[in-house]
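This follows on from our talk about sequence and fold. Go ahead and set the record down below:
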Amino acid sequence: MLKLQKGFQWMLIATFFFSIMGATVKLGSINFSAAELVFYRSAISLVFIFFLMKINKVAFQTNYLILHMKRSLVGFVSLLLFFYAISHLPLSTAVSLNYTSPLFVGILMPIILNRKLNYKIYSMVFVGFIGVFLILKPTFSSEIIYAGIVGVFSGLGAAIAYLYVTQLGQLKEPELRTVFYFTLVSSICSAFLLLGQEIHTPSLSNLKVLLYLGASATIAQIAITRAYRVGNTLGNASLSYLTIIFSALIGVTLFKETLDFLTIVGIFLIIASGIFVSVKHSRLK
C-alpha cells in the first residue's frame, strides 16, 4: 500500500507538470516556432540534468552510445511533432493523440522486442485507433487534419523511443544518463534546425514562459522517473493518463477551448485502451 501511495504522489506531480509543459508550449507558440520551443525546452532541461548528474555522481560515459543516439533522435523528432501539434490543436486533443504511444507500443513490441502479444491487446489497439478517428473526424474537411496526423506520428515516435528506453533499462543504464543524452541531442538537433529559420528574440514576458517550459519539463521528467522507481508499474501506467485530464482542464479554463461529443468519446477510448495495453505490456516484462 505504501508503495502505491508513493507512486501515486510522484505520478500526480509528473502528470500535472507535463500538462503545465503543454500549456507553456501553447502559450509560447504565439511567438516561437516548434523548433525554437524544442530548443529552449531541451537546453534548459540539459542544464538541470547536467548538475543533477554531477550531484549524484552519475558518469556521462556509456557503453551503449548507439542505442542512446537512436532513442534520442527518435525522441527529438517525436517532441518536435508533439510541439507542432500543440501549437495547432486544442491542448487536450494534441496530448491525447500523443498518448497513442502505448497503442503503437503494442504494435511494435513483436518487431523491436520480439515479444508475442495476444488478441486482446490487438483488439484494444483497434479500439484506441477508433478513438483517434473520432477525434480527427470533425476536422477532416479543414486544415487542422494535418496537425492531427502530425500528433498521431508524435505518438508513434514516442512509442519507439519508449521501447529504446526499455532496452536501456534492461541494460541497467541510469535514468539521468538516458535523459541527459536525450536533452543533449535534442538541443543540438533543434539548434541546427534554427540555422535556416528566423530566430525570435525573447522578451522579458516570453522569457518567463520559456523558463516555465524548461522547468516544468524537467520536474515532470524527474518525478516520473522517481514514480517508476518507488511505485507500482501497473498503477503508474494507468495514472499517466491524468495528463490528458489536466490538459483538458487547462485548455478549457486558460485557453477557452471547447470539446465536442465525438472528441470526448475519442479521448475516453484512447485512455481506456491505452491503460489496458500499458497494463498488459507491464505484465509481459
